[in-house]
Amino acid sequence: MAIKQNRSPLRVLADLSLFFCILLAPVCSATPATAPATLLQVKSGLTDPEGVLSGWSPETDVCSWHGITCLPSEVGIVTGLNLSGYGLSGVIPPAIGELISIESIDLSSNSLTGAIPAELGMLENLRTLLLFSNSLTGTVPPELGLLKNLEVLRIGDNRLHGEIPPHLGNCTELETLGLAYCELNGTIPAELGNLRRLQRLALDNNTLTGGIPDQLTGCASLRVLSVSDNMLQGNLPSFIGSFSNLQSLNLANNQFSGGIPAEFGNLSSLTYLSLLGNRLTGAIPEELNRLGQLQILDLSMNNISGKLSISTAQLKNLKYLVLSGNILDGEIPEDLCAGDSSSLENLFLSGNNLGGGIEALLNCSALQSIDVSNNSFTGAIPPSIDRLSGLINLGLHNNSFTGVLPPQIGNLSNLEILSLFHNGLTGEIPPEIGRLQKLKLLFLYENQMSGTIPDELTNCTSLEEVDFFGNHFHGHIPERIGNLKNLAVLQLRQNDLSGPIPESLGECRSLQALALADNRLTGTLPESFGQLAELSVVTLYNNSFEGPLPESLFQLKNLTVVNFSHNRFSGSLIPLLGSSSLTVLALTNNSFSGVIPAAVARSRSMVRLQLGGNRLAGAIPAELGNLTHLNMLDLSFNNLSGDIPAELSNCVQLTHLKLDGNNLTGSVPSWLGELRSLGELDLSSNTLTGGIPADLGNCSGLLKLSLSDNHLSGSIPPEIGRLTSLNVLNLNKNSLTGAIPPALRQCNKLYELRLSENALEGPIPPELGQLSELQVILDLSRNRLSGEIPASLGDLVKLERLNLSSNRLDGEIPSSLRQLTSLHLLNLSDNLLSGEVPAGLSSSFPAASFTGNDDLCGDPLPQCSPSSTRRLPRTEVAVIVSGIAVVSAAVCVALMYTMLRVWSNWRAVSVSSSDGEESAHGGRDNKWGAAGAGDGKYWKVGSPVSSTAAEEKHSSGSETSVLHGKLTEASGAAKS
Amino acid sequence: MAARRAVALVALLALAAAAPARASNDEGDALYALRQRLKDPNGVLQSWDPTLVNPCTWFHVTCNQASRVERLDLGNSNISGSLGPELGRLVNLKYLELYRNNFDGEIPKELGKLKNLISLDLYANKLTGSIPKSLSKLSSLRFMRLNNNKLTGSIPRELAKLSNLKVIDLSNNDLCGTIPVDGPFSTFPLRSANTALLFSFENNSRLNGPELQGLVAYDSGC
């Protein structure tokens, strides 16, 4: 048949096909005799899981077949085929086009696949065609435009693609056209405007583009116009306002722009209007207030500005008013709910620029949900809020409400959600809250509320989520918290709560997340904790909990995140290892003891394992190598011994590896170079031996590398220069030999470089002058470095501290060091330097910065003179030496006395000696030489910096400011 | 459908409410807020996980012993975007090293809250607007390098209060007016005598030489 191959969208051809079809009627049409055969052919193409077609057999009357309707008067004239919702799969065979007498086909809600057969276009009697909710593919056949009698066409919720055929505009009897939820593209055909009888047009959820064509003005009978979730654009056509029968208008989630036409106010039958999620601008037209039938008005997520000009005086049926996510400003109008006639049940104004109070809402007596969050509302929560007795949801969060939570809140007996977070609320939680028996969510977080948590709260037995984070609540967690059997989330972090966790908490069997961190809670964890079988996230950090963990905790098989850091827990870790789903186990800074149990490694999804600052002993378990998702492994500051297990090389996602402050032995493993994600590697303060592996140069993302305070030997591998991201390199206190590799110049992001207390020799590579970001310190002291100080070090303009002391450096101090404008601590003492101290330095730094260099002279050291280089006879030397000995003994006594005095004063003043370079675990890190007051002698003198240095050492207080004042004064004096 | 949408909205409300409940501490929140406004093509902020207890394990963030943020090192990281008021919440910050990036927008006046700040390195970015007066409250500040930006306006007189200031580099901007002579600025004339480049104001075409008290209005040329 010609029609079979005809996929041309040209209407002429389609019409021609029809013409031929009529001409060849005996061939095309299904006579009564052929209908059963055709239907059996249809059946043969289908899979029928429920067996509804089992009765379709040639032996029985076709009109008795399931789903078949026949004309009552004549025998065997099939008019209806209804097989909706039987789980049928397979394709619709083209033979269906032979059921010429059929008027209604309903194959909706099955799992049919394949294309819609073009042959359906031959069924000239067809009035209803329902193929929606299948998995049909292909395009919408233009031949459907031949169906002159078609009244209902619903083929949406399939996987149809391509454009909407304009031929559908020929189906002039159409009352319902449903093409929603497909993958149709292109524009809405103007020809649809021919459908004068069309009442329902649904094109939602496609990818249609372009505007709403003007021709659609012809669809004057429309009751439902729904084109949401497409990519339609342009202005909203005002002609829609003339559709006097329109009940539902859904243009949501498109790209419509411009204003809302005032003509929409003429839609006197409209009950539903959604313009949500477009780019509409301008004000809400006053005319919308005339929509007396309107029940739902959703203008949210646009750019609508101006005042909230809605009054329910005429919008008597309005139940939902949704204006969230616009830029409305001003206040809620007094007449929003004038009189008692308001039907308004749900008011969503979230995310605008609205301000003022919310008293006007108290007239909206039918309100069930209020969401005015994310605005700039101010004032108090009105005590008469209890006039809204039907209130279920109250969202006032992210505003600037002040004052107290009124006790009348307890009268809102239907309240389920009370969300007041991030406001400026003060005062206590009224005990009346205990009357809210339906309350599920109570969010008070990030306010300034105080007082105790009332015991009455435990009467709110429907509570599922409680969040009081970031307030000032004090006192105990209510003893009867266990009454809250439905509680899933309890967040009390960052308050001033004290006392123990009540034993009854174990009764909160639904609890999934418990956050009590950042309080002053004490005591041991109750045995009942082990009953919280649903518990997944538990954070207790920064409290004063103590004692061993109850063994019952081992029953918590669903734990995923555990953070007990910064408490005083002791004993074994084993109670926390009942779960094999842990992703975070953070127990830093407690007093846990024993070994690290291998069972930790059962949680294969572990991302962070932080056990630093405890008393764990024994070896690092090799099983940790199974934790291949591990990002952070912090075992620092324990008493761990043995080698670093090779199995850790499997933890290829490690970003932080901190094993410092233990008794680890063996070598620095070369496989560390395979951990390409590593950003921090700290193995300092162990007893590691051997060399620094060159492979470390492969950790190209490394930011901090500290191997200090070990027994490492050999030379610094030049491959370290490949660590171009490195910020901090600390190799202090080892036995490293050889020269400083010039390749270090490539580490041009270094701000801290410490190589002191080694046996490094050779010259200081001039290339170090290229480390232009060096800032905190360059410390090469206590080595065997020789040669001259490279002039290039003067290029380190950001450098604040330079220590080259106790080496064998000779020659003159390069005058370029005067360019070190940021320098405030300089130590060149105990070298073999000679000549005169350069002028710029001599005025800035004390003698201590230069002493111990026999041939160095000039201010602040003794004057340079020819005699200074003269050799003295032995006897003279002896006399001078003994004289010096006597004098220095006397000076020593005096000094010790003074130091004792200074020290005792120091103790009185000093609060913290931190200048911030220690690790979080405390001051084991050796800093710049001897820590404390001793450094002061190398500080720059006569400059404001020395006063800052003093400030850094003392933390604050009046003494500091006095000191500060004095020193600044002194510096001023020095200048003038 | 409509009812479903309304239900969804209520659910949304609940969701929106639940999300910040998991928020990290304030300094972490502040840094994360900063991150949100930044473009980070090299992924240097990848480790900034807001769900952690504190930001101390985030790369490029260094904390002190009390787990408060002390250094922020994002120099040379190809980051763009604007700085925000949230930086003012890092009250323990000593080093703010944001040099050589593509930061734009203004220097937030909230930086004035960083009473412990020693080093403010914002040089070589695309910062605009004027130098906030509030920076005069940075009583610990030693190093202020704002050079090579697009800063305009005059140098706030109040900066003369920064008695600890040691290095100030405002060169290569579009500043105007005169250079103060009080406080730390009084060392300015020493610059030529001492090769040390303590204070640099070069290449600000509309900036006049040091203010000679009584002779030139300090904002002349602005």
TrEMBL record, chain A:
Residues 1-30 form the signal peptide. Residues 37-70 form the Leucine-rich repeat-containing N-terminal plant-type domain. Residues 384-493 form the Disease resistance R13L4/SHOC-2-like LRR domain. The keyword Glycoprotein applies. It is a single-pass membrane protein. The chain crosses the membrane at residues 877-897. Residues 913-976 are annotated as: Disordered. InterPro entries: Leu-rich_rpt, Leu-rich_rpt_typical-subtyp, LRR_dom_sf, LRR_N_plant-typ, LRR_R13L4/SHOC2-like, Plant_LRR-RLKs. One of its GO terms (cellular component) is membrane. Residues 918-927 have a biased composition (Basic and acidic residues). It is found in: Membrane. It comes from the Eukaryota. Keywords: Glycoprotein, Leucine-rich repeat, Membrane, Receptor, Repeat, Signal, Transmembrane, Transmembrane helix. This is Leucine-rich repeat-containing N-terminal plant-type domain-containing protein. It comes from Digitaria exilis. The lineage of its organism: Eukaryota, Viridiplantae, Streptophyta, Embryophyta, Tracheophyta.
UniProtKB/TrEMBL annotation, chain B:
The keyword Signal applies. Residues 24-64 form the Leucine-rich repeat-containing N-terminal plant-type domain. Residues 1-23 form the signal peptide. Keywords: Leucine-rich repeat, Repeat, Signal. Pfam families: LRR_14, LRRNT_2. Residues 72-171 form the Disease resistance R13L4/SHOC-2-like LRR domain. This is Leucine-rich repeat-containing N-terminal plant-type domain-containing protein.
